[in-house]
Amino acid sequence: MLDIMKYFTLKEMKKSLVISIWFMILTFPIMVIKVNTIENTVVWRWASLLGMGIGSFIMATLWRYLLERKNMKSPLSTKKTLQMRVVEWANENPKVKPIALIAVSIFVLSFPFFSGLYQTSIMTTALMYVVLGLGLNIVVGLGGLLHLGYAAFYAVGAYTYALLNYHFGLSFWICLPIGAGLATIMGILLAIPVLRLRGDYLAIVTLGFGEVIRIVLENWNQFSFGPSGIAQIPRPGFFGMSMNLQTATTYIYFIMIAMVIFTIFVVRRLENSRIGRTWVAMREDEIASESMGIDITKSKITTFALGAFWAGMVGVVFAAKTTFINPASFTLWESVMILCVVVIGGMGSIVGVVVGAMILILMPEYLRAFSEYRMLIFGAMLVIMMVFRPGGIISNIRKKYKFEPAQAAKNADKEGVR
Amino acid sequence: MDLQYFFELFVGGLTKGSIYALIALGYTMVYGIIKLINFAHGEIYMIGAFTALIIASALSFTGMNPVLIFLISTILAIIFSASYGVTMEKIAYKPLRGSQRLSGLISAIGMSMFLQNYVLLAQTSDFLPFPNLIPEFKFLEPVKSLISPSGFIILVTTAIVMILLTYLIKFTKTGKAMRATSQDPKMSQLLGINISKVITMTFIIGSSTAALGGVLISTHIGQLNFYIGFITGIKAFVAAVLGGIGSIPGAVLGSFVLAWTESFGTGYISSDYEDVFAFLFLIIILIFRPSGILGRPENKKV
């Protein structure tokens, strides 16, 4: 086992010192000098230089320690990870699963009643990202196609509801399938031109597609009311009942819960269906799967279409929840955020996406205490996460069929004796 | 059609394309060697511009010769940006070598967010004016309406950088090692090339050209803030992909083609849809040439 005390020897301290001096020089102009261009004066902030030096000294030591610890674990080591142990333990004790399920559902169902309005609201947002993440997971995790314009479909859903409601007064429940359907059609429309592209070319085209949709929404004033957006979108109704803000928030929360359950159900079924397996085959090797008789064209179009479906649906809920939308909600950062949910959680794994969404959405909210620094911390967390756990928090464990050699051998022996 | 207007747009596209090219080079070189979309590259460009602004403003209070200030701040900006690039590689990308490619992308996105907010917190979110350091050139008088002194400097510098870079890549040992690594990293390692050194070198060159682009465009436009790196970075990346990512002449060609598309599109059609022209053009090109204008089609193997 590696000892952290090893890093307090003179030699290691010297290394950390060199790193901290490097950082002090590196950050000197930006951290220390601040020019006031109006009064033409220069402010020298020596204190931040000192802080930087001490901070980077500690970080350097810690970083090297953690990195070495990570590298000590060889990829072939038989040591079980925490996740594997939990899964095995759950398999061995079949009673655990229903108990855990009941506990989670009690918590989920009672959540809006014991927490405040604000908590319920951000939890709803997190649930929206769960569905978005699961939808993108179809494209990125299962289909293996890097998609950077996912927010465009989300925008399609949101604008469908906002505009149909504005012009024709259609209600939330009618718009929900329409929004999802239109997003699916957009998905197909995007999939057709990009069929031949792969890897990073695909990524940049989807990125471009997302930006085109956003810019069109921003500039086509007659259609989408431009950057000022659409306000006063009604919240979803419940058989014409009038609701105050508190009940409405709780109601949307439960709609999202239902939607998450529905999504998980469908995605699980899809994953193990014939379509889902063609996606995975396509991800692993396009040419090989094509030669095995999989229609790649169809398979790619279905990934994009079914991925977009969920975004369109969540888009409608988003418009109903915030009651105001404008193109600024659907920037590239939004797509990147959803991608981060998928990758941080663990690509291809449903539980991973749920956990990823909870962490990525709730963390910045609870980091509000450090309000200014939260995006800084968030960025650093992404890097640290990827460096120390590149596979995501919960990696997708493939189903394994076990075969007991001892038993089989015994049976074979018996056969032999007879 | 008005010829004067046409030339204005043409020259405008040329200056813009030069800046894109300086940034796109870094994208394409990094991609060629470690197959990573360095999302944080735009931030390096921004840091280069910011460093130059800070140093130039601080020096201009002392009343030094503007040209001298410009040179000093540019050189320092390049040195600092190159150091940022190398440090970034050591922290965020080196430990990820050999893991799946999406991890690298997310790490780069995290780095980009971090650097943006670092500059925002350490400096300011306001637009800062960049001091005017470029002297008036006498010989530009006749074409004054077409090209400004800073535009002229951009064109000349870009041309010089391109020539130097071509020389470096084609005729030096480092360049040879880079080309070998981008073709086959494993094999070149077997032949005794120090891959880590090559990657460091790539980041140094890429970050330096990006910083140079940042300084030049800031003097041209006259102001900057912490957010300039993001959209320009994306555009430069589009340019690199347009030309065929991994190919250096491709990146330059892609940059000019992209800049002209934007320039003529905004000039003759509508100025609201500048980015739409860029992206639509990219999509159309990629439909017909899936690996960019100069990119070699991938060899498909099973």
Enumerate how many helices of chain A there are, as a single number: 18
Radius of gyration of chain B: 19 Å
Q: Find the CATH topology of the largest domain in chain A.
A: ABC transporter involved in vitamin B12 uptake, BtuC
Question: What is the overall pLDDT average of chain A?
Answer: 82
Kindly state the number of beta strands of chain B.
2
Runs of chain A in which pLDDT lies below 50 for 5 or more consecutive residues are: none
Average pLDDT confidence of chain B is 86
Question: Kindly, what is the distance between the CA atoms of the first and last residues of chain B, rounded to a whole number of angstroms?
Answer: 54 Å
Strand count of chain A: 2
Give the helices and strands of chain B as they follow along the chain.
HHHHEHHHHEHHH
Q: Based on the structure, what is the oligomeric state of the protein chains? A: heterodimer
Strand fraction of chain B: under 5%
Query: CATH class of the largest domain in chain A, anyone?
Result: Mainly Alpha
Q: Which class do the helix and strand fractions of chain A yield? A: mainly alpha
Structural class of chain B: mainly alpha
Structure, explained:
The complex is a heterodimer of chains A (418) and B (302). Chain A is mainly alpha-helical and 418 residues long. Chain A folds into 2 domains: 4-72, no CATH class; 95-388, ABC transporter involved in vitamin B12 uptake, BtuC (Orthogonal Bundle), CATH 1.10.3470. Chain A is 72% helix and 2% strand. A two-stranded antiparallel ribbon of chain A has the order 1-2. In chain A, strand 1 and strand 2 (41-44) form a beta hairpin. Chain A starts with 9 loop residues before the first helix and ends with a helix. With 302 residues, chain B is an all-alpha fold. Chain B has one domain (13-225). Helix content of chain B is 73%, strand content 1%. Chain B has helices at residues 3-34, 41-60, 66-93, 101-122, 149-171, 173-183, 185-190, 195-221, 228-243, 248-268, 274-288, and strands at residues 128-129, 223-224. Chain B has a two-stranded antiparallel ribbon. In chain B, helix 1 (3-34) packs antiparallel against helix 10 (248-268). The termini of chain B are far apart. Classes of the chains: A mainly alpha (418), B mainly alpha (302). Chains A and B meet through helix 1, helix 2, strand 1, helix 3 and helix 9 of A and helix 2, helix 3, helix 4, strand 1 and helix 9 of B.
